[in-house]
Amino acid sequence: MKKFIVLMFLLLSIGAYSQELKIAYVNAGEVFNIMPEITDAETKMATIRKQYEDTLKAMTDEHTLKYQEYMKIEATLPENLKLKKQQEIMELQDRYQNYLPVADQEIQQEQEKIYAPIQEKLMNAIKAVGDDQKYTAIFANNPNIVYYVGATAIDATPLVKAKLGLK
Length: 167
Known about the structure:
By secondary structure, the chain is mainly alpha-helical.
């Protein structure tokens, strides 16, 4: 009988505590994709990508032209000029190969710069909703991502670290 009373007390306590928790979720991707700023950001990104594509195409065209010219006159060239032309072609190829990762990195940086204010606006809206509605936490559809933690939430990070023996 004592066990039953203790169990009932625990269940009532848990029930009362759970009523204080207000947890929500948001499909941030869906909201992000319908924000009006996205159209402008996508246009800017398309322009930036086009500029890099044009540069890469110009580099490829230059390499192709030099190679074709070389192939036409290769048999008539003295050895020292052959080596010079081959080196020019290899330098163009190396320049292209070195430019690819730089272009990718620069495009990524531009994308981050363009989308950051939009993401910040979305996160501020999520936080404002959390504050207004007094949510304890707002989760994404992916439960591994937490967008907002309210003042009543407990950060269990130190406890988990201690459990794992981490500092």
